[in-house]
Amino acid sequence: MRRNLLGLLGVVLLTVSLAAPSANADTTTVTPKITLVAADDLTYDRQTTTVTGTVTELMPDGTTGGPLAGLPVQILCSNACTGDTVTTDEAGHFTVPVTARWWQMSVSASIHATETVASAEAQLDLFPHSDVRITASADSSVVSAASPTSTFSGRLEYLSDDHSWKPLPDRKIQISQPGPPSVSATTTTSADGSFSKTVTLSPSSVTQQVSVLWRPATTEDTTFFKSPMVFVDIHPGFSPAIGRLSGSLSSSGTVSLAGTVTGATLRVPVTIEYSRDGSTGWTDVTTVETLGTFTSKFTAPAVPAYYRAEIVAHGYDGAISGFVKLDKTVTSISAFGVTVDPAGTLNVRANVSPSNLTVPVRIEYSADGKTGWKTAKSGTVTGGFSTSLKAPLAMAYYRAEIVAAPYYKGSTSRVLKVGRAPTRITGLKVSTTRVKKGSYFTITGVLQKYSSGWKALTGQRVSIVYHVKGGTALHLYGSVLTGTGGRFTAKIKATREAYWMPRYPGGTAYYATSPSTYIHVALR
């Protein structure tokens, strides 16, 4: 319940006028409590605020009672407002307008004790503040006696109430080099907060930090901002060199260059250049920054071409490397070998150089080794290969070929003649197809080779194989030797019904062969 202290006093006076107070009468004393709150933080964008005070009754048990209205409150300010006396309204409130005038301020409120009201005090400290930042860089981070100037550029900004960085124009920026001898220069920010100043620096043998500083000078600036400062490293001049430049050109046209920069004390830009003749028309390809070794990869702008690396003088001395010439990679095929087994399977192997080059390779064959070359197999290889394929001809000439491409030269292996003579078994006969168990039957035939016509093949082993009726597993019965005219005779003891076949497994110069069908011999 709101209490009006003036009304309470009137009641007391009225009581006094009606009767003399008893010696044991109680006097009621109200204990006030003052609470101060600022409506907003003080910033560069918002330089005024309102401090609201609330006066309530502090109950004996420590709890907060109702508001105290009509109570005079003495206001004292430190760098914030003028002193004044205000009176609480019906809600126990009072307000004090505050304008920021210094980076630290206070508002205090006090109530003087009376017969019915105890004294009370409260203080609110205010700290006006806005974040500020300065950025700076130098167009040349290296100075020397021959090139002592560098242009410092940057921007001075503060963080506004909408959380964006906004410019601080018309502020003096100080640029200082410690030396010895020391160097100092000033410049002023423009409307967008930017600044730029060319300064003649003092060359040094060691890296120095040049400070870029803004000191708030006006009362307004010192109220809201602290002094920001950044440092820009300035390095002494040096004489770099570029050595050990090397390069390669891949089969896909990628140039890989590598080199080493010596004599530098900081990272420097290295420009890769190319020329078609190695003396004129040098053109930039790409730029890398390095302190030591560097590598660069890019698509070849021309083939052939000459490449070099250059450091352009910039406070430090310039340097140019020697050049490397990159032409189509020369390829070669060595250790080319081809064999064919009796079953007609070719085994081909070879080495391809350079060993790190990935290229497509074709295996080709020709009947005469001169014309009509055809591709038997192709694939992409790196360094070497080994592969198998079916022989396209009984006897043929073989070679491996790398076809020329835009970034490498083609090459061809040696030519090898590889093959075997075709063979066949003809005149195949069996003495009987029904035989008594335990008795014998014979299989005869003629083994021939082809050499400008079919001719007898003598002195060769012919294997006799069979599988029993109802089965598929082959078994070797034995072998016979071909005699005059390539004829062979196999005498076989019948133990079960089976399917028989003579097979020639092939020889050093001959392909294997066998009839197309089995001979069925049954038991009776």
From TrEMBL:
Signal sequence residues: 1-25
For this UniProt record, the keywords arranged alphabetically read as follows:
Signal
Which InterPro entries would you find in this protein's record? CarboxyPept-like_regulatory (IPR008969)
Region of interest called Disordered, as start-end residue ranges on this chain: 169-192
Read off the SUPFAM superfamilies from this record. Carboxypeptidase regulatory domain-like (SSF49464)
Q: What is this protein called?
A: Carboxypeptidase regulatory-like domain-containing protein
- Species of origin: Planotetraspora thailandica
